[in-house]
Amino acid sequence: MSVLEGIPIDLSIVLGSTNLPIRQVLKMGRGAMIPLDCGHNDPTLVYVNNQLVAKGKVLVEGEHMSLEITEVVQRVR
């Protein structure tokens, strides 16, 4: 496994998404709220190199956030 340790990957944790016009983004200030297309109980998506690999839920404990993996997504061939 030591051969793999130096290989970089792009890891993305996606809570949700939205589409906003640029004019709205430019008007935003500190503390602005952006509504997302997901609910409180919807899974958080985990992408590796832009491919969905897992789903999970965000855990918050004091100042620390973590992600609990609840499902590993099977690759479609």
TrEMBL record:
GO terms for cellular component: bacterial-type flagellum basal body; plasma membrane. Its main location: membrane. One of its GO terms (biological process) is chemotaxis. Keywords: Cell membrane, Cell projection, Chemotaxis, Cilium, Flagellar rotation, Flagellum, Membrane. Residues 4-73 form the Flagellar motor switch protein FliN-like C-terminal domain. It is found in: Cell membrane. GO terms for molecular function: cytoskeletal motor activity. It is a peripheral membrane protein. InterPro entries: FliN-like_C, FliN/MopA/SpaO, FliN_T3SS_HrcQb, SpoA-like_sf. The keyword Electron transport does not apply. Belongs to the FliN/MopA/SpaO family. This is Flagellar motor switch protein FliN. The lineage of its organism: Bacteria, Pseudomonadati, Pseudomonadota, Alphaproteobacteria, Sphingomonadales.
